[in-house]
Design brief:
alpha/beta, Aminopeptidase, Rossmann fold, 2 domains, 9-stranded mixed β-sheet, 8-stranded mixed β-sheet, 29% helix, binds zinc ion
């Protein structure tokens, strides 16, 4: 009820013509197929669109994008979204439905085929089809992902729009393609137009059985972060909704996290973020009930996406690469976000990014990092950031750290992988940060590193404008046992 009220207010004040009503429900309630749907209805007549994601469980971008598109203000027509059509497969991270008989495993082959007697195959397709048919959709858009770019590897449908050759889809697809392709520098990664969706697919069935204008929109998972793939889905769907007059001109394909009882968290997953970091951040945030964790990329940050979140997390990887991906505009946006009260948690690479000694660093405090070049006899000039492969070290919370992370007495074992080591302050300066934990052991690879890590800061905090910053050199997220502690730090840093 509260949600519907907020939506109506929002829509009335932004466009002044159409009231918007939001409702939600469940398909296949109580069964293992149970999945939520959202309906966004306006008082202004217009098309009915059914948008689906997560039909294949190993194609997460479609599910994420559908979830995000649910939050857009609508000015005309009716949008029905099923973000997670195939919950068992999504949970397993697999394309096929787990635990069903051969011939029914691929959900996107289980919908009614033209000219055949049979209807749907399997219980999940039956539930979904009943629901979709009852909406009488004018359009059906099904979001998927391919394993490779179609222009590079024609065996994959990655980066394509596969439409049903109706007049309406033939007119819309080129506009959707040119809009998304304008954001892609490499022509080999451009989206292409294909037809028709495969027999038994939801899109094909919607076109043939329901007369809907239907298309499958495919991004490519290869070498592209999840944030970029969801962004491409959003851009294409947004362009379609714009053509249909359902979203306002000048609006962008934005990420708008819904109101939530816990912090709304943006996890940076673009260039410079290691592949393992973002999933471990999501695992950590499951310790904060009611929090929302969405991935963002450099372009999202540059376009001001962080402003709508309470916390930004920059995970492990390469600090300089993250900085380069963000560019000056992105780094400025991160600093402004924190100035205005947003939280920042930087882990390993993200802690380098938050430091002050590089021309690309965010300089939230006067924390420097011991990473200069030294002459190593017989080896030449070597940078001191490298201390060898990932290993376990110990750290100990300070009193200030215990205020934030809770009382963890004694030494805590934590994984370390070349995170920043903070050198001593110069005689004429004092730290503009507070030490939350100290390293109590060390690793080193080169002789000048010996004795430079033990008893130096492992975790620090600082304030920047109205916001809080947490910079963590090791990887507490890598240990399941330390995730509840790290989650407390995230909750502390988040805007509140
Ligand atoms: Zn698929």
């Amino acid at each position: 009820m509260r949600r519907a009220f907020i939506a109506i207010l929002c829509s009335l004040t932004t466009c002044g013509i159409s009231a918007e009503l939001r409702s939600s429900g469940l398909i296949a309630t109580g069964s293992r197929w149970e999945t939520p749907y959202q309906v966004i209805e306006t008082s202004e007549p217009g098309p009915t669109i059914v948008l689906t994601g997560g039909v294949h469980g190993d194609e997460p971008a479609g599910a994420r994008a559908a979830e995000q598109i649910c939050e857009w203000p609508l000015i005309r027509g009716r949008l029905i979204v099923i973000p997670r059509a195939n919950v068992p497969a999504l949970k397993a991270g697999k394309r096929l439905i787990p635990g069903v008989k051969t011939g029914e495993r691929d959900l996107n082959r289980n919908f009614p085929r033209a000219g055949s007697e049979g209807g749907t195959r399997g219980a999940l397709a039956a539930h979904l089809w009943d629901f979709v048919a009852a909406q009488h959709p004018d359009w059906l858009i099904d979001l998927h992902e391919g394993y490779d770019f179609h222009r590079l590897q024609p065996g994959s449908v990655g980066s394509s729009i596969i439409d049903c050759n109706s007049d309406a889809t033939d007119a819309a697809a080129p506009v959707m393609l040119s809009t998304v392709n304008a954001t892609i520098a490499d022509p080999q990664r451009w989206f292409v137009n294909l037809s028709l969706p495969v027999e038994g697919s939801l899109a094909r069935a919607a076109a043939e059985q329901l007369g809907a204008s239907a298309m499958i929109v495919e991004t490519t998972s290869r070498d592209q972060p999840l944030s970029l793939r969801t962004r491409q889905h959003r851009i294409m769907v947004h362009q379609l909704l714009l053509r249909l007059g359902m979203v306002s001109q000048g609006s962008e394909a934005a990420i708008i996290p819904p109101p939530s009882p816990g912090p709304r968290v943006a996890i940076f997953d673009d260039k410079g973020a290691g592949g393992g970091g973002p999933p471990l951040m999501e695992a950590t945030l499951r310790e904060l009930p009611g929090s929302i964790a969405w991935r963002v990329g450099a372009e999202d940050v540059r376009q001001g996406a962080l402003e709508r979140f309470d916390l930004a997390i920059f995970p492990g990887g390469s600090g300089s690469s993250q900085a380069k991906a963000l560019g000056e505009r992105g780094r400025h946006a991160v600093r402004r976000f924190v100035e205005q009260g947003g939280g920042y948690v930087g882990i390993c690479a993200g802690a380098y990014l938050s430091a002050s000694n590089y021309d690309w660093s965010l300089a939230f405090s006067n924390q420097r990092t011991f990473a200069d070049m030294r002459e190593i006899p017989g080896k030449g000039m070597k940078s001191m950031w490298y201390r060898g492969p990932s290993s376990l070290v110990t750290m100990e919370l300070s009193d200030a750290g215990k205020q934030i992370f809770g009382d963890h007495p004694g030494e805590i074992q934590v994984r370390y992988h070349n995170g920043p080591i903070v050198p001593p302050m110069l005689p004429n300066e004092s730290p503009t940060y507070e030490v939350l934990a100290w390293f109590r052991s060390e690793v080193s690879h080169y002789e000048p590193q010996e004795g430079t890590m033990t008893d130096t800061p492992a975790m620090i905090s600082t304030r920047h404008g109205k916001g809080r910053v947490l910079a963590i050199s090791p990887h507490p997220e890598a240990s399941k046992a330390l995730r509840p502690m790290l989650a407390k730090g995230m909750a502390w840093a988040a805007r509140n």
